UniProtKB/TrEMBL annotation:
Taxonomic lineage of the native organism: Bacteria, Pseudomonadati, Bacteroidota, Bacteroidia, Bacteroidales
Transmembrane segments: 12-30, 50-70, 77-98, 165-190
Domain Signal transduction histidine kinase internal region stretches: 210-287
InterPro entries: Bact_2-comp_sensor_kinase, HATPase_C_sf, Sig_transdc_His_kin_internal
Pfam assignment, any one: His_kinase
Keywords from the named record: Kinase, Membrane, Transferase, Transmembrane, Transmembrane helix
GO molecular function, one term: phosphorelay sensor kinase activity
Protein name per Swiss-Prot or TrEMBL: Histidine kinase
A Gene Ontology term for the protein's cellular component: membrane
């Protein structure tokens, strides 16, 4: 997660660098747009000089104000700090960001349009020698003549960067607000991406923690039943008890190590179930009919570990009677799309089984909800004579 956040931070900074590089190139494009024969480097440098206050505003907002105030929800303090920063930065701005011209505008300069000198003619007399004859005013269409004192300089050069706005300070203030707004938008976008990634990692961690908790609830129950079996065998058959201890050690290795993985091969899970059933058979007489139906060839598929053991434990605990014949059937089928597990047993202890069903099988249901949300089938049926559990899960 840390590496992902670093990559996102690098990407965010890269976007900022690209944007400011584009802004640095804009004056060149503006100069080309005006169709000058050569670059006006002085105007370009003046434009870059005008960018400095806005760059400072961006840096202060992005790396200081937003982390310390904005994301800590100190809204009013953040707003006041942004306004103060903009006012201070724009007050010292040498010229406008989008106004690269420095000095008086062309039409305010006291210059005449250059041209060839007028020819001298002796026929024309000075004005003071013409007496009372009125002199007609010059036509308005003569180049260089205007009512105003300023001469006509020809069409003014246009710039697509020029923003007509009243007031130099207000113009810069609006531009600074736009820069801060874009900065906030990009910052919030990447912050939302990081929050979504953190939430996903947190959900994954909570899922792993809850699954481990549910598995740890299963393991003590399983070991307690197995130790009770060994205790019963010690008085009946010492050699079988020794073999049972060896088998138990193998099963413990599976429970403690293999089951710690998110998934396990179906073959290992089936081998564990076979050992468990063989171990449980040692405890009961021939009156208990235990049948195991498995595929002839176990496919190479992955399943969550210890997913079926709770059904078997429940069947052995409540489906066995020492007074009458009882049975336990375990069936496992693998199709192209899913795995079906069916456990049926005689209902010898109906009241106790209903109580345990609300505790033990509820943990299984919680685990299934975490592993296969809305993508599994768990059907539990209980009659006077039989209790059955059907589980259908999709292949991983």
């Amino acid at each position: 997660m840390i590496n992902t956040e670093k990559k996102q931070q690098i990407l965010e900074n890269f976007i900022y660098v690209v944007i400011w590089l584009i802004l640095l190139i804009v004056p060149f494009i503006d100069d080309i747009y005006k169709q000058n024969s050569s670059f006006g480097w002085l105007d370009i440098f003046h434009t870059w000089e005008g960018m400095i206050p806005f760059l400072l505003i961006f840096l202060v907002n992005n790396y200081l104000l937003m982390p310390l105030l904005f994301f800590k929800k100190k809204w009013w303090l953040y707003l006041a700090s942004v306004v103060v920063t903009i006012c201070l930065a724009t007050s010292f701005s040498p010229n406008g960001f989008f106004n690269p011209h420095k000095g008086p505008e062309p039409w305010t300069r006291n210059e005449w349009k250059s041209g060839p000198p007028l020819p001298r003619d002796d026929k024309f007399k000075p004005m003071d020698t013409m007496g009372d004859k009125a002199i007609n005013p010059l036509p308005q269409n003569i180049p260089g003549y205007k009512d105003k004192k300023e001469p006509f300089l020809g069409p003014r050069q246009k710039s697509f960067l020029r923003i007509p706005f009243v007031g130099f300070f207000m113009n810069n203030f609006i531009i600074a607000i736009l820069i801060v707004g874009f900065n906030i938008a990009i910052k919030l976008l990447f912050q939302s991406i990081r929050d979504a990634h953190r939430l996903k990692e947190l959900e994954k961690h909570n899922l792993e923690t809850e699954l481990a908790y549910l598995k740890h609830q299963i393991n003590p129950h399983f070991f307690m039943n197995t130790l009770n079996n060994i205790h019963a065998l010690i008085d009946i058959d010492t050699e079988k008890a020794k073999e049972t201890v060896i088998g138990l050690s193998k099963m413990m290795r599976y429970v403690l190590y293999d089951s710690s993985q998110p998934t396990i091969s179906l073959e290992k899970e089936v081998f564990f179930i076979q050992n468990y059933i063989e171990l449980m058979k040692l405890r009961y007489t021939d009156k208990v009919n235990i049948k195991l139906y498995l595929p002839e060839i176990i496919p190479s598929v992955q399943i969550p570990p210890l997913l079926f053991i709770s059904f078997l434990e429940n069947a052995f605990k409540h489906g066995i009677s020492y007074r009458k014949d009882s049975y336990i059937n375990f069936s496992l089928q693998v199709n192209e799309r899913d795995i079906e597990c069916l456990v049926t047993n005689s209902n010898c202890d109906q009241k106790s089984q209903e109580h345990e069903q609300g505790i033990g099988l509820e943990n299984v249901r919680k685990r299934l909800n975490l592993l296969y949300p809305d993508n599994y089938t768990l059907k539990i049926d209980s009659t006077v004579d039989e209790f059955s559990v059907l589980l259908i899960i999709p292949l991983l």
